[in-house]
Design brief:
Strand order of the largest sheet: 2-1-3
Shape: elongated
Order of helices and strands: EEHEHHH
Number of helices: 4
Radius of gyration: 24 Å
Structural class: alpha+beta
Distance between the termini: 68 Å
């Protein structure tokens, strides 16, 4: 009678609660560190098809995140253009107060990444 061997995991997938920390790890200890630090679930992937599926899922999520970031950048630019066009006009009702709030919200945060990139 032949003995059935349990497949040894090929890699470990740390599916963290915060997707920024989710990772494919070669060592179980590395994956457990991510799970312990950021919460989530540990998966043992023993087949290339599982790894391919997880990698494709991660890549699709990253593409959606990039698309959303780019859309937010476009909308920020358009909102800034609207504020610039309307600034100084006397708007009816609470229009000027809303315009001031919008203008304040569009100011870049101090010490943000954009400033560091523009300075370098």
């Amino acid at each position: 009678m032949s003995e059935v061997k349990k497949a040894v995991p090929f890699v470990y997938w740390a599916n963290c609660a915060d997707p920024d920390y989710s990772a494919v790890c070669w060592h179980r200890e590395d994956a457990l560190t991510e799970i312990n630090d950021h919460g989530g679930t540990l998966y043992e992937l023993s087949h290339t098809s599982e790894l391919d599926r997880v990698t494709a899922e991660r890549d699709a999520l990253q593409a959606r995140l990039t698309e959303a970031d780019e859309r937010a950048d476009v909308l920020d630019g358009l909102a800034a253009d609207v504020v610039e066009c309307l600034w100084g006009l006397e708007l009816p009702g609470a229009g000027n107060a809303r315009l001031r709030k919008l203008r304040a919200a569009l100011k870049p945060a101090e010490g943000g990444c954009d400033e560091a990139v523009n300075e370098g």
